Amino acid sequence: MSPTPRPAMEPRNLLFITLDQWRADALACAGNAAIHTPHIDALAADGVLFAQHYANASPCAPSRAALLTGMYQHNNGVVRNGSPLDPRFSNVAWEARKVGLTPALFGYTDTAADPRIHHANDPAMHTYESVLPGMEPVLYLPEKPHAWLAHLQRMGYAVGTDMQEVYRPKTVEGAAPAAPSNAPTVFAAEHSISHFMTDAIMDYVGVRRQESWFVHASYIRPHPPFIASAPFNTQYAPNSVPAPQRAASPELEAEQHPLLAVYLQNLKQSTFYVGGQGLVKDLSAADLAQVRATYYGMVSEVDVQVGRLVQHLKDTGQYANTFIVLTSDHGEMLGDHHLLGKEGYFKEAYHVPLIVRDPKTHADASRGQRFGGFTEAVDVMPTILQWLGLPAPRQCDGHSLLPICHGQTPQGWRHAAHWEFDFRSTWSPNAQDALGLGLDDCGLAVLRDHDFQYVHFAALQPLLFDLHADPHCLRNVAADPEYAAVVLRYAQAMLSWRMRSNARGLTGQFVGPTGLVTRA
């Protein structure tokens, strides 16, 4: 007798979108009236916007390690771009495979391979952009995205493979611009890397309408170079975007802390736009306004692609079965504190968007809500796993946000956000040598709640900002005698956080006379 066939299971799809270098306030649904992001706003209206969400590390590789393993930096060990991710740790891709899903990667994960299991001549030892173990790279787009460059060449663009030339403004012929401009890219918006990747994802899910799938869509924009395709390059006038929050001069800003002074004296404009000359701190007010306007244009350009992808899911009947998480790996200073990029300890480099959209009916009551409690990147992996019906590994430092999406705030929810930043020098110079510090002296950790932001350094003086009196963190009061008790209280809270979140490993298991005992 032949076995009775199993009834067909309804597909359960998971779309995990990461946007690179996207600030939390660069969304209209987050309260920014100057920016136009209708498609991501619509996604937020159909899910939950986590308004106080923070990356746990910076730059790219450390932030993604925390996001993809659910572990704080001090536990996963990925401190800089190029820090290997220890293969003993699980990750969201390995876990998802336990329910029969093949996590498909479009983009990149910035995961450095383990040198203990690779020969020195292995190509994996010459890049920090290997693929997260467990991910299937359907469309791999690292820093030099050959698949997209080949596409541009097929479209007739003579761009070669030099990324400086690929992103050289269209209006400049052979000469580098002397200042930021609103000139467009040489390629049309429909040929951008974001459009190219979105097309590939749509093709992938379009032929899997009766199957469950897991797509990790890792968009690189609005990561620099700061340049947008037409018409997004002129969508925002420089005088229409909010002004940066900063001290009256770079010199006054530098007085805040030695680490900040190092970055102000070394951060180059050429890191952020093709042809840049001089230091970021020397950008004129007009040039910085143009950078900010261009960044807004890049944001709107990616917003359109997210909209195309979501609409495709609706058109193919898959939206009703698709769980969507949209977030960013880290933020962008965008001229605040006279900085660009994501180095340092300021909120702007860590406060990022998070939208979670659960298609199930028991999430209906929370659709369109803003959750004001603190959430962190380490919460994303447990959230995804719970939706897939999987427990979070004990290694995870975060907690599932799914109850919040169903209208329930878990008891004892965190009252602060935490992030870490390591500024040691590696294959790429950093602040370590300039400050005369040892390799393991170059860490900082931040604890931020609604009242204060406390920054603790391994070998430098701490910082404290009174967020009621100084919401933009312009005045360090750590040495003010009136705040001595506050510094002590926050230093103790930081220590308690580190102790509670120490790497767990087998600490929840006990072997004794009654056999193995496991405690949650």
Task: Summarize the topology.
Elements: E1 13-19, H1 38-45, E2 48-54, E3 57-58, H2 60-69, H3 73-76, H4 92-96, E4 103-107, E5 136-140, H5 146-154, H6 163-166, H7 193-206, E6 214-219, H8 250-254, H9 258-266, H10 285-315, E7 322-328, E8 354-357, E9 369-376, H11 380-387, H12 402-405, E10 417-422, H13 432-435, E11 443-448, E12 452-457, E13 463-466, H14 484-500, E14 509-512, E15 515-518
Parallel strand pairs: 1-6, 1-7, 2-9, 3-10, 4-5, 4-6
Antiparallel strand pairs: 2-8, 7-8, 10-11, 11-12, 12-13, 14-15
Helix pairs in contact: 1-10, 7-10
Q: How large is the count of helical segments?
A: 14
The gross shape turns out to be: globular
Strands of the biggest beta sheet: in what spatial order?
5-4-6-1-7-8-2-9
Structural class: alpha/beta
The number of domains is: 1
- Remind me, CATH topology? Alkaline Phosphatase, subunit A
* Biggest sheet overview: 8 strands, mixed
Strand content: 15-25%
Strand count: 15
Average pLDDT level: 95
Q: Span between N and C termini?
A: 45 Å
- CATH structural class: Alpha Beta
Fraction of residues in helices? 25-40%
Q: Work out the oligomeric state of the chains in this entry.
A: single chain
Nearest-angstrom radius of gyration? 23 Å
Instruction: State the CATH architecture.
Output: 3-Layer(aba) Sandwich
Order of helices and strands: EHEEHHHEEHHHEHHHEEEHHEHEEEHEE
- In the predicted model, the low-confidence regions spanning at least 5 consecutive residues are 3-8
CATH superfamily: Alkaline Phosphatase, subunit A
GO molecular function: metal ion binding; sulfuric ester hydrolase activity
GO cellular component, one term: cytoplasm
Keywords: Hydrolase, Metal-binding
Pfam families: Sulfatase
